[in-house]
Specification:
The complex is a heterodimer of chains A (about 170) and B (about 250). Chain A is of the alpha/beta class. Chain A folds into two domains: about 10-80, Fe-S cluster assembly (FSCA) (GMP Synthetase, Chain A, domain 3), CATH 3.30.300; about 100-165, no CATH class. Chain A has four helices and seven strands. Chain B has eleven helices and no strands. Chain B has helices at about 5-25, 35-60, 65-70, 85, 90-115, 120-145, 150-165, 175-185, 195-205, 230-240, 240-245. In chain B, about 50% of the residues are buried. The model of chain B has no long low-confidence stretch (mean pLDDT about 95). The chains are: A alpha/beta (about 170), B mainly alpha (about 250). At the A-B interface, loops of A face helix 2, helix 5 and helix 6 of B.
Chain lengths: ~170, ~250
């Protein structure tokens, strides 16, 4: 395959096989960080946006995308953009379903309030749903978890800790 | 005068770089595991933002200095961070009170910078707004808990407010650099953020049962490179690898 003959569908298929190293159940496409793909001058240009400014997985994701496309004989250029800022609202319902099946509570809708809210309750008002027993009798223990994109929660019904993807 | 946009970006980048380093000192030492993780996460956000801001500064300067060169190869007199962020991490109360003071300031600043005429800066700011919202909530939450906690937590938190308050005035001082970037639409005049900052911070402190010291005197100097003795010690640790092994890479 080369960039002159590759189709957009073929490239999308390759990208959809590149997983987020920290949430390996989601592809970079499902995560919503692939913002654009262009084919010009024999080069595939992939435009990415980071989830968080300091996301340590970003470099690995760039390398994985480059390697996946290069393995199919394609020349790659990666561009990074910061605007518009990534939001969990770009994740598809299918992606959210996969997250829950994997054991991570999916994000609710992101809020766009400008006022500083001083409460730790999720902005939607609803407690996260436990990915194991589906109870809403849960609490957010800490908004900062094992990676920048997740919070630590606890389910009072099944007495298990679980992670939630933060809505941003 | 050096290019105002370059100077301004150094101020933004250095605030985040130095505070990010101070927070990273808690890694492995925080009072509870969740806070160890939280403070490391917040440090990561700040260092990530610093990398983007200093990278943009280097591009505008045009002297082939990248974010690493600006972070690791400048001495204390060349750094432009506010004094507040370079003070030692202190106990948990000092760290949390400083986080409240800085995060509210940084959130208001980032909200305004989303409208910057520099598109790259506007993009970095839009991303930062989402991160600072979490930082503000985290620190305010803790100030309420510590202020309303035991006599020990309350007295330590009050002492932290008393000690740090005199470093907050510098955040809102506007000089020629700030006025130039505000006039060109690239930056925001920090003095315009003070009333909103004050309202939020005073509200949190009042709800936590904490008082604000009546000291009219405010420290200043960081924006022009006049720092406390603490910054040199921080840099000697932060920069040693890059200076001992020039060009080292992963």
């Amino acid at each position: 395959m080369n960039a002159a003959t590759a189709t957009r569908d073929e490239i999308d298929e390759i990208l959809d096989a590149v997983k987020d190293p920290e949430v390996p159940v989601l592809s970079v496409v499902e995560l919503g960080i692939v913002r654009d793909v262009r084919l010009d001058g024999g080069v595939v240009t992939v435009t990415l946006t980071p989830t968080y400014s300091g996301c340590p997985a970003m470099r690995v994701i760039e390398q994985d995308i480059t390697a996946a496309l290069a393995a199919r004989g394609l020349a790659v250029r990666i561009e990074i953009v910061y605007a518009p800022a990534w939001t969990t609202d770009w994740m598809s319902d299918e992606a959210k379903r996969k997250l829950e099946a994997y054991g991570i509570a999916p994000p609710g809708p992101a809020t766009h309030e400008t006022l500083v809210s001083l409460t730790r309750a999720p902005a939607t008002g609803a407690a996260p749903r436990c990915p194991y027993c589906h109870s809403r009798d849960t609490v957010v223990k800490s908004e900062f978890g094992s990676t920048a994109c997740k919070s630590i929660c606890f389910c009072n019904a099944c007495r298990q800790p679980f992670e939630m993807f933060k809505a941003i | 005068m050096p290019d105002a946009t370059f100077e301004y970006l150094l101020r933004l980048g250095d605030d985040r770089l130095i505070l990010g380093h101070r927070l990273s000192e808690w890694c492995g030492h925080a009072p509870i595991l969740e806070e160890d993780i939280a403070l490391a996460n917040i440090a990561l956000d700040l260092i990530g933002q610093a990398s983007l801001l200093l990278g943009l500064a280097g591009k505008i300067e045009g002297q082939e200095r990248d974010a690493d060169a600006l972070a690791y190869l400048r001495d204390a007199v060349e750094l432009r961070n506010a004094l507040l962020v370079e003070l030692p991490k202190g106990d948990f109360a000092v760290t949390i009170v400083r986080q409240l003071f800085f995060s509210v300031f940084a959130l208001l600043q980032a909200e305004a910078l989303q409208r910057s005429k520099n598109q790259e800066l506007a993009g970095i700011a839009a991303k930062a707004v989402k991160e600072f919202r979490y930082h503000v909530r985290h620190s305010a939450d803790w100030v309420l808990k510590l202020g309303g906690g035991t006599p020990e937590s309350r007295s330590r938190t009050q002492r932290a407010v008393d000690d740090l308050w005199r470093y907050t005035g510098e955040l809102f001082l506007a000089d020629d650099v700030d006025r130039a970037v505000a006039a060109s639409g690239v930056g925001v005049d920090p003095s315009t953020l003070e009333s909103a900052w004050s309202a939020t911070v005073r509200d949190v402190l009042a709800r936590a049962g904490l008082t604000i010291p009546e000291t009219p005197y405010m420290q200043r100097g960081g924006r022009t490179g006049r720092h406390t003795e603490h910054l040199g010690h921080l840099l000697s640790e932060m920069q040693i690898l890059a200076r001992s092994h020039p060009g080292a890479s992963w």
